[in-house]
Design a protein that fits this description.
138 residues, alpha/beta, Nucleotidyltransferase, domain 5, five-stranded mixed beta sheet, two-stranded antiparallel ribbon, globular
């Protein structure tokens, strides 16, 4: 049975996007962390929200992340790791960033497709991975 709320991870070499997303309510929380802290941060979020389903992007770096996450137990229960296609999720994350944070001043005259967000968007990418997972559920 699919979960209504999941932890989502956009894994990366140096940093990872993390989000807790509810199927109907949307984003509960999102953040970006350094990759070495991924396992601890995921365990903390899973325990805090009583979740065992983790959505993870299927990029090359996800193999290492999945190995670390496989060792995590929440209340004695193993996490269920579900890989999701990461194709163009960063592009979608940039669009979502600009929707939430529209450019101001003269920058508003430049199309956002020609601008680079001033902050990393890995947390938005994690949200998009969770939304892709929910979109494929019955």
């Amino acid at each position: 049975m699919p979960e209504d709320m999941v932890v989502a991870i956009d894994p990366g070499r140096e940093k990872c996007g993390l989000a807790v997303v509810h199927k109907e309510q949307g984003i509960i929380c999102k953040t970006i962390i350094a990759t070495p802290g991924l396992a601890a941060a995921t365990a903390n979020l899973a325990a805090s929200y009583k979740l065992t389903t983790v959505i993870i992007g299927n990029s090359t770096t996800s193999v290492t992340a999945r190995t670390e996450l496989d060792a995590i137990r929440v209340n004695g229960q193993r996490l269920t790791l579900i890989p999701v296609n990461e194709y163009r999720s960063t592009d979608e994350a940039r669009k979502r960033y600009w929707q939430d944070n529209p450019p101001r001043g003269l920058k508003r005259l430049i199309p956002t497709t020609l601008q680079v967000p001033p902050v990393p968007v890995d947390d938005y990418a994690a949200v998009i991975l969770a939304e892709r997972y929910f979109a494929n559920q019955p």
